[in-house]
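Sequence, structure tokens quoted for completeness.
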Amino acid sequence: MTTSWRIVAKQHSEAAFSGEGASRYPGRWNARGYRMVYTAQSAALASLEMLVHLDSETNMRPYVLFACTFSSDLVEHVESKKLPPGWKSYPPPAALSQLGSDWLEAARTPVLQVPSAVIETESNYLLNPEHPHFPKITIADPTPFSLDLRLLRR
């Protein structure tokens, strides 16, 4: 079994696995209009993935942490060596959102394992909340989460 982690603002915890946020605000791996849930290999990586999007201490609000558990047969893997040059750049190349959107449309698996652009040796797990096997993913109750504000000092 694999466990991945998701951090969200507490006020959004009810919809944390709907994919609506990614649909409205596309990310590296999905185009606008595609529901996707971004999770990370560890709580530490989920923290770093969140940190790259925070611009100041003023964005700190109450957060919660979710653990998601799933079996390996639900996962499709993407290796970094098969990604286009510059895949870690920001903004990301459009080929990545196309790759993720194509995976969502094909509905081969409910989980896509991709390398993290923050730490390439680590993985993010993208979840398809509309996949028929999405209910096989066990989502634990949220627990309070906060970052050490020293991480925001630059």
